[in-house]
Amino acid sequence: MTQPHDDPCAHCEEMMQPYLDHILTEGERLEAEHHLDDCEWCRRRYRFEESLRVYVRQAVSEPMSASLKQKLSALRIPLN
Ligand SMILES: [Zn+2]
Asked: What's CA 69's distance to the chain center, in Å?
């Protein structure tokens, strides 16, 4: 059930987390994307949230193993 919302952006924001979790129904996803198409503000919010998630996922993914660290330093990729 969905509460009627005067503010489409508020509704959009409600759908953001499920959208990013890919648990929206097809219809809801299309609705969100449709709104994102013509709302730059929400688009930025979604992008920000999305990049934040990618960053967090990387940050919390298993601590770097010693062998991975070695490989990275062999490639001279700065770790920080
Ligand atoms: Zn919006």
From this structure: 27
Instruction: Answer yes or no: are the C-beta atoms of 36 and 12 closer than 8 Å.
Output: yes
Look up residue 74 and give its two tokens. Answer: 């062999």
CA angle 70, 73, 76 (to 5 degrees): 155
User: How many angstroms separate the alpha carbon of residue 38 from the centre of ligand 1?
Assistant: 8
- Ligand 1 centre from 10 Cα, in Å? 7
Position 79 scores a pLDDT of 60
Summarised one tens digit per residue, pLDDT across range 12-31 is 999 999 999 999 999 999 99
pLDDT value at position 33? 95
Residues of the chain with pLDDT under 50: 1
**Ligand 1 centre and the CA of 27: distance in Å?**
17
C-alpha 33 – ligand 1 centre gap (Å):
10
